[in-house]
Amino acid sequence: AASRPWDFSIQTQSRTPHARKKAIAPGDTPRRGFITSAAAFYARTDPRCRLTDRDLEASLRAPGRAPVAAMEDPYDPWDYPGALRVNDQNRFNPYNGYHGNELEFVETCLAIFHEAGLLTHFGIEDGLARRFFANMYASYGAMPYHCALHGQEVLAAAHCLTREIVECGHGPFTELEILALYVAALGHDAGHFGVNNAYLQNSRHALYKLYTESTLEHYHAQILAQIVTHPADGIASCVPEAEGARAKFFRLLTDIVLATDMSRHKHLVGEFQWWIDAFVGGSVGAGVFLRQGDSARGFDDERAGGASGGITELLRFGGEGADRAPALVRARRLDTERREMLLIICMKCADLSSLVMDLPRADFWGYRIMMENLKQGEREMRERVEQTTPTTKESALANYFAHQAGFLEHVVLPMFDHLTLFTSGRFRKKVLALGSENLAAWRKGHGEAMMTRAKVQREAALTRHFIRCCAGFLMVVVFIISRGMLLRKTMNEMAGEFRGSANPYAAQALDDLDVTRFVFRWIALVFGFLAACCLTLASPSVGGRCSASFREAVINVFFVVMVVVRYYMNFLRYTTVKSMTRAGMFDIVGDPFVRKSAALLYLNGVGVSNNHVVTPCTFTLIYYIGVPYFSPGVHWFLHCITVAFRFVVDHNLKVNEADTSMLGLVWRMEDVTRGWLTMLAFPLALAVFDRRGFWALMPRPVKKQISRMRRGQYMRRVRARADGGIRGKSHDA
């Protein structure tokens, strides 16, 4: 093939009438392109777009009318003259079909190849081209993101990028290189079945055994090579074999497709950025990146400061002539290696170009890749493969804005920032502005989404806390009622035993028991009322009208009430038992708060006292259920304090019987530490009833060690299943 600069001015008359380029008279407003119209079509769902079709057509037709707010800059960097138009005859609706429309796919590809002059240069007839594009369309599956519509979009983006680079005089590219880029852009995801390379590696897929590096990319390249070399419908026969042109075409085709592997992104883009920085920084004057025999004197003169002011002024996209000034005006001729590197970066930018289009279009493709990742996550969970993508829509939506913003900021924008140095200032300014707008919108959306998510989670957590608090109050009420019934039985026994007794403390002990029953009765009534309040605040009709801060304050008040009531009940128990001990009734009746069942007698026989172990742990578990707003550590701390206080009180029952007040307690360290078994019983109970709570009580070093052991065991099981072929169904390559 003859090597000559690639010219976009070549136009043919064999295109379809509705895809033919029409001349624009001076003063007329250009019609919207295919990409612009599609974005406007999907922008109607955006609440910020208040522009109707009537307003849009009126603003386009009226030459003297001021532009509306939504059309401040009608320039679309991703439009091209050969694109299908909305108002052309027999034009289909934009994005007719979720995965693409075959007729529209073929017509769009045909228009792009005609506009580039590739069909004429290589002698490819329209019938052969249509069959080739139809086979390319059929090679894509019904995937949310990697479908035929994605290949069509990437081809259009690659066409816009290379058009800008060629019109600025860089290269010069040969038709063979452009053909390889366009065919690779069109079929770079041919045969994609909705998973990534990480899944193929973790599942020991048959393709991974065939290609251990860039697995999917080798697979796409092989399918693309089969379509290109088809005996009847392939275009490989149109590429001449002279001077190794056909071999170079297939080599470029494979290299460009393999470059779309994101594992190679850092290396490729880093190398490209290095020589671009050297390009702009001053190493061009030595002819390092020029063809042998070409002169860099014109560029050196421009850089030294001529009529235009030097390269530093050319790189400044502002002021007059900014829309016309390319970044590297004189550095046009590149050697073969640099041209191929530029083609590869064009392919990578075209593949990710949706992120630097207008926001509705960027979100349109962003949600598609999210849905495809969700399907892969479900497949990984079903096949018990290591998780690499989200498995629930909630988790994917929660991280959507952060993922889009991070990927755009750290991957896409730096690549476009360097590539657009070869384009016009207008194109560079518009593309980077769209990327900056999308980045700001996604950052704002991430903040709002996090706030909304936190608010919803806070409200849901408060509702759960009120329901559990209601359950805790009711359990305390049941416990108090049972203790009240036991106290009444104890009073009847003591009244019959000490009737007519001369003991002066017996009447006082009976009065203390009566006061305790009275207090228990009122505590039960108050806790029953608080349980009703919890149900009311948990209901959507009432709880939705109250602010979260108010509900949290109510939860805190309930917690304080529960803690105060618990320690007050310990005080009542101490005064009651002390009064009975002083009257000599305790040895006859025993503990008035404990039932003498066969099970409890057995526990006392084996050393587990109901008074010292079972009752405190039961009450702490009731509080743990009733006050979930606080961590297990707080509950364990209060449990330890309660147990220590209980053992101190039990020791003081036998000391200074005349003093029944709390001020006369004798505190000994041995009494405080004697209840260590009861203190450890609460974590053991959590290990049985609430493993998450028990895990929260574990020290951090122990957690890390256990997590490391679990991760190692899980990976060993995964490898054993993969190596032993216990994955169930065999994968179909």
Describe this structure in words.
Helices cover 64% and strands 0% of the residues. It is an all-alpha fold and 733 residues long. Helix 3 runs parallel beside helix 6 and helix 28 crosses helix 29 (691-697). The longest helix has 73 residues, at 425-497. It starts with 33 loop residues before the first helix and ends in a 9-residue tail after the last helix.
Concise overview:
The chain is mostly helical and 733 residues long. The protein has helices at 34-43, 53-61, 102-115, 118-122, 126-138, 148-167, 175-187, 197-202, 206-210, 215-228, 245-258, 265-281, 297-305, 311-314, 336-351, 359-383, 393-398, 400-419, 425-497, 506-538, 540-543, 548-582, 586-589, 598-605, 610-626, 632-652, 669-673, 676-689, 691-697, 700-724. The longest helix is centred in the middle third of the chain and has 73 residues, at 425-497.
Number of strands: 0
Sketch the topology as an H/E string, one letter per element. Answer: HHHHHHHHHHHHHHHHHHHHHHHHHHHHHH
The mean pLDDT is 74
Overall outline: elongated
Total number of helical segments? 30
The class by helix and strand makeup works out as: mainly alpha
Note the main sheet.
none
Low-confidence stretches: 1-71, 88-95, 282-329, 598-610, 725-733
Radius of gyration: 39 Å
Head-to-tail CA distance between termini: 37 Å
The proportion of strand residues reads under 5%
